[in-house]
Every structure is written in structure tokens, then in C-alpha cells.
Amino acid sequence: MNTWQLGKKGETFAVEYLIKKDYKILRQNYRAGRLGEIDLIVFKNNRIFFIEVKSRTGDSFGTPAEAVSYKKQGTIKKVASCFLKEYGTSDVEVQFDVIEIIMTKDGKLVDVNHIEEAF
User: Each residue of 51-87: pLDDT tens digit?
Assistant: First the structure.
């Protein structure tokens, strides 16, 4: 399984996890031109969550959340701002989360770690 496939499978696991927790999926892979993209945008309890999904098959490169650099956080915030302007949702609370997906090398789910208010 290559890195792209691992990421896509991880996003699928994250969506399944969020649906079980009663989040409403608004968008997946929302892109704001060349600025960047947000993996998942979800809604629950009058709050919009912008979620970065990081998938790994081990921790030899650190935890998945450690891969969400300050630069990446800044990009996510800018893209989130574009989403809020585009959909006119300025009167809602926002939150930035990271979901870590740990899988086996053949793509079986090992663990989901939802880090709320990650940045």
C-alpha cells in the first residue's frame, strides 16, 4: 500500500469514526485553489470542525499528529477561512482537530485517536 492509498484509507476510517460519533460530514478534501486543502469539514452541536487526518503504519517517524507542522496549521486556517466566506457561516464556532489513524501495513485499522482543539 503506497502513501496515497494509506492516506485515502485513513480518511475513510476517520469518516466512519466521525459518523458513529454523530458528526455530519460537510465536505471531504475541500480545496481552496492553490492555497491548500482540508481533509474533512464536519458539523456537530452548532460547531464546524476542520480536521486534518494523518495515517501511519508505525511510529518510527513520530506520531501522526507531529506531522501537522505550524506551516500546515497555518494553511489549514487560511483554507478554513475561505470555506467560511464561501458558505457564509460566520456565526458558528470553529474548531481545528487532528485525527490520527494507525493501521497495519496491509491497511487494517489498529487505532483512531481524535485530538480535539489540536491547534
Answer: 999 999 876 777 888 889 999 999 999 999 999 998 8
Round to whole Å and give the CA distance between 110 and 64.
13
Spans of all domains in the chain: 3-115
Q: What angle do CA 78, 84, 88 make, to 5 degrees?
A: 150
Instruction: Name the CATH code of domain 3-115 (choices 3.40.50.2300, 3.40.1350.10, 3.30.465.10, 3.80.30.20).
Output: 3.40.1350.10
Residues 100/113, Cβ–Cβ less than 8 Å? yes
Query: Structure pTM?
Result: 0.92
Q: How many other CB atoms sit within 10 Å of the CB of residue 88?
A: 7
